[in-house]
């Protein structure tokens, strides 16, 4: 059972679905609909992209997505139309980075262990 639901603001829901699918491997449902939804690869989060919410260009709440390899993820972010805001840096035994998705939202990625 999924315990978290996330709505991600988007200027173009289809573009957003394609980006998150390519970068994070999320399973997209209703790819060709006006409101595609997703399930993350770990079975922890479900959600949808919404055009009715403000883009989080300057986040107050900054969600971070766990990734297996931060450098590979940064490459996929840039290759799929995202922009790195803060390149990967160490935070204790974690590696973290923030990025802007194609709609302009700022989110983070992280992984534990060596880079």
Explain how this protein is built.
With 115 residues, the chain is an alpha/beta fold. It has one domain (4-112): 2,3-Dihydroxybiphenyl 1,2-Dioxygenase, domain 1. It is built from two helices and eight strands. It has a four-stranded mixed beta sheet, with helices on one face. Strands 5-8-7-6 form a four-stranded mixed beta sheet, with helices on one face. Strand 6 (83-91) and strand 7 (94-100) form a beta hairpin. 24% of the residues are buried.
CATH class: Alpha Beta
Sequence stretches where pLDDT stays below 50 over 5 or more residues: none
Shape: globular
What is the alpha-carbon Rg in Å? 14 Å
Number of helices: 2
Largest sheet: 4 strands, mixed
Draw up the topology in text.
Blueprint: E1 4-9, H1 13-24, E2 27-29, E3 37-39, E4 45-50, E5 64-66, H2 70-79, E6 83-91, E7 94-100, E8 106-112
Task: Give a brief outline of the structure.
This protein is an alpha/beta fold.
Identify the notable features of this structure and list them briefly.
single chain, about 120 residues, alpha/beta, 2,3-Dihydroxybiphenyl 1,2-Dioxygenase, domain 1, 4-stranded mixed beta sheet, about 40% strand
């Amino acid at each position: 059972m999924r315990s978290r639901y996330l709505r991600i603001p988007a200027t173009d829901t289809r573009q957003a679905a394609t980006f998150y699918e390519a970068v994070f491997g999320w399973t997209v449902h209703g790819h060709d609909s006006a409101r595609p939804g997703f399930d993350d690869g770990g079975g922890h989060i479900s959600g949808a992209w919404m055009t009715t919410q403000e883009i989080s260009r300057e986040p107050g709440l900054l969600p971070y997505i766990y990734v297996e390899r931060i450098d590979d993820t940064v490459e996929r972010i840039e290759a799929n139309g995202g922009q790195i805001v803060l390149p990967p840096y160490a935070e204790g035994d974690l590696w973290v980075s923030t990025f802007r998705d194609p709609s302009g939202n700022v989110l983070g990625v992280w992984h534990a262990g060596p880079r």
